[in-house]
Amino acid sequence: GNPRSGTVPGVGLVHAPFSLLPTRFPASFWKQACELTRIFNELVDRVSLDGKFLQGSLSRTKKVEDFTAWLLEIHAKMMAVNKKEDLNQYSEVLGLDSERIPRNWAASQFAEALGKAWVEYNNESAVVTMVVQAEERNMYDQYWLINHLKESYPFVMYYLFPFAANL
Q: What is the pTM assigned to this prediction?
């Protein structure tokens, strides 16, 4: 497995905690989830490094599940494309036209969903709460989410709380 998985930002699985309504969550469960996340990251990393294993493991599933078949078809195409080696990466990067790259609307759509949920909840004293853990790796995602929420729903109150280990 990749020794950096789960320890270096951008390598491994990063959870995105979310709850529409406030929910108590014992610290012992949090610690257990953190330990399981490390193990799950390693599993995902090892499976991702073995395309033949992944394709073989899901070969029966793709026969009965269209979505899985579609994903495996994309995976097979990407595995074939990734066999190409190009040492002259500068020439490819310099020709990049940013206008042709599809826009990622995830942050604004997520903020829109939170804003609409707040409206549907129909309680003016309701707030959007974000629990931010120490050494948060998704802080920029949360920053953009809050900014989009402020722009589209300026009347929605929101709070950021650092994760408290004694919940």
A: 0.40
